[in-house]
Amino acid sequence: MSSKASPRMIGAFVLGGMALLAVGIVVFGGAQWLQHRTSVVAFFPGSISGLRVGASVNFRGVSVGQVTDIRVLFDQDSIQARIPVIFEMDPNRIVGVGAGATVADEAFRQNLIEKGLRAQLGLESVVTGLLSVNLDFFPDAAPPEFHNSGEFALPYPELPTMQSDLQALQANAGEIAKELTSALNTMNEVLGGFSAAAGANKGR
Asked: Taking the alpha carbons of 182, 184, 186, 188 in that order, is the dihedral positive or negative?
């Protein structure tokens, strides 16, 4: 003979489970799930090799968010590709003093961009070669270029970027390597010519 569970007992189990879940969220840091975060997108020039989902987003060394998604968007007609980097920012970390505005406010964010706020790639670890996203003000920066439009448009506000010293070094390293290769080839040709001439004189 089977006995039915009491509705009160079922209710007590449900409430107990919800209570345990709430405690777990607070204890293990899951309370961050309940925080509102602002997602933005950035299109970095050049290669982003070394950047990964979960990479930190910093403003002068202060963590203000993290990378949540990296995609590759192709235009099938022109075979052009863009790589949007999407990252979440904690609005409580970038706040306008007095105004009470945060980075979640479009007007406040646009004002920061007009004053030179840009995103750059930075080296997070020399050992691993992993990259992070660094935010800072560059008052003398060129007017911002925006790429989140047309076929490449994503439903996020865009934060303009600029080439970092690291990216410039990587780009120059490629050109320097080409020049060195060309110089070595020329040197080998010259030395080969000398060797051939010396061999011809020896045989006389």
From this structure: negative
Task: For tokens 């602002």, name the residue.
Answer: 38
Enter the pTM of the model: 0.66
Q: What is the three-state SS of 174-198?
A: HHHHHHHHHHHHHHHHHHHHHHHHH
Distance CA 175, CA 162 (A): 20
* Cβ atoms within 10 Å, residue 82: 15
Q: Mean pLDDT for each 10-residue chunk of the chain (204 residues)?
A: 61 64 49 68 90 95 95 84 92 82 90 94 88 94 88 90 73 58 70 64 63
Q: Is 174 exposed, middle or buried (0-12, 13-18, 19+ CB in 10 A)?
A: exposed
